[in-house]
Design brief:
This protein has 204 residues and is of the alpha+beta class. The chain contains 3 helices and 8 strands; from the N terminus they run ααβββαβββββ. The strands form 2 sheets. Strands 3, 4, 5, 6, 7 and 8 form a 6-stranded antiparallel sheet that branches.
């Protein structure tokens, strides 16, 4: 185990700068009654943080945006053209069209216009098999989040029980087949490539 690097105190850099200034100053400027200015009151940590924040450069006319406090909705973002856009998007599954084989897919990612990763909502009727597939070519890692109902996920021939609150991660090249139980099955899939940025597909 390598030794941890020696940590400098928050004020070490400031102390060094003050020391150099004092040593290079004329003797008459080094204090009153022989007392070094280094013994005068040092700025508090809060004052140091505020000074550092104030020195951070921003483009002319720009205003720093603070994160909203808990329970307060974020303010709309301002576009370069001066218009306003919402800082978030909301959609209810019940508002989305049933798509895909058997109408079991609700294309949530497309509705929200999310771009960082893929996700969709699936609603299986009772005793329904999905489509066996894998994502080896796209190297897409997926996580399945069970919301409602029960069933199984057959992964490379092994059965994994599904129930509300269960999360299942699947390797890209592993085959998977969701199967709903007698009371149906609802789950969310989330996925993204392991080796490159996600690119939203044209189909949703």
């Amino acid at each position: 185990m390598q030794p941890s690097p020696k940590r400098r105190s928050a004020s070490s850099g400031c102390d060094a700068a003050v020391q150099e200034e004092v040593e290079g100053a004329p003797a008459r400027a080094r204090g009153v009654g022989g007392i070094s200015p280094l013994l005068r009151r040092s700025p508090s940590r809060r004052e140091a943080r505020e000074t550092a924040a104030a020195s951070t450069s921003l483009p002319a006319g720009a205003r720093r945006r603070r994160a909203p406090a808990a329970g307060i909705r974020a303010a709309p973002r301002q576009t370069r053209q001066g218009g306003l856009v919402a800082a978030y998007d909301v959609v209810d599954v019940g508002e989305l069209e049933a798509e895909g084989p058997g109408g079991m897919v609700r294309k949530v990612r497309r509705a929200l216009d999310a771009k960082a990763f893929g996700f969709n909502y699936f609603i299986f009727p009772p005793n329904q098999e999905g489509r066996e597939h894998e994502h080896g070519d796209s190297n897409l890692e997926e996580v399945y989040i069970v919301v409602k109902g029960t069933g199984t996920m057959r992964i490379d021939g092994e059965h994994v029980d599904l129930h509300p609150g269960r999360f299942v991660r699947v390797d890209p090249a592993a085959t998977r087949l969701p199967i709903s139980g007698a009371d149906g099955l609802e789950f969310v899939t989330i996925g993204a490539p392991l080796d490159r940025p996600y690119e939203p597909p044209s189909w949703g």
